[in-house]
Amino acid sequence: MSGVIYYFSATGNSLYAAKVIAKKINAKVVQISYNTEKSCNQNVIGFVYPTFYWGLPEMVATFVKNLNIKGNPYIFAVTTCGLSSGGALGQLNDILIKKGKCLHFGETIRTVANNITKYHIKQKSIQKLVRYENKKANEIAQAVAQKQKNKIPKVGIISKAFYQLYLKQYANSDRGFHITSDCTGCGICQNICSADNIVLKNGKPVFKHQCQNCLACLHWCPKNAIHWKNTTVGKQRYHHPNISYHDLKIKNK
Fold it and tell me: Whole-angstrom Cα distance, residue 31 to residue 12?
């Protein structure tokens, strides 16, 4: 089997899952960004992405809507989440159905919750969840290799309502970011931003208000110099222990 897995990832949780599955089914992994080719003729297509407010990251939704899927491929999806994935699989299926396709198989993997604008990272659970993710991703890979199908849950009313909060605020959420004097102007935040939302001016990051609210810039800053309002001060940052900055660095920037 061969195919392609499109992924969106901020801290590396989703990329790690994508890589584990891709290795098992001999698929290539392709990062979702504004530069990603929007035509696909593969026989197996996967989407791996984090859950945002019980739904899809806006960039993932837009990418799938614009993706020209040729033929009748087997399509699967995996969403990573801290606790509940809500309507993150159902939303993707709804988009595909409007394109005359459907999601044949969908699964959720619980990973390290890392929205530190809302809560602290649970340090004691990291290694346990990393091991669980590896196990679950391998199980999913086996199911995909066999082209198994399962029932994709519908998007519930509560999930829809919660997701609307994200849609109303994501683009301008970067107005809450501020940079401390610890910033060295290294450019990591600019290079890791899938939304092309950060540019360095006079050696400091400036936000362009097309944010996805993924917090990649905040988690990967080597000096912890990026904060969101006052809610992230003193909080531990996180990125997947098996994923590096170079793995996530946006290509063609």
Answer: 12
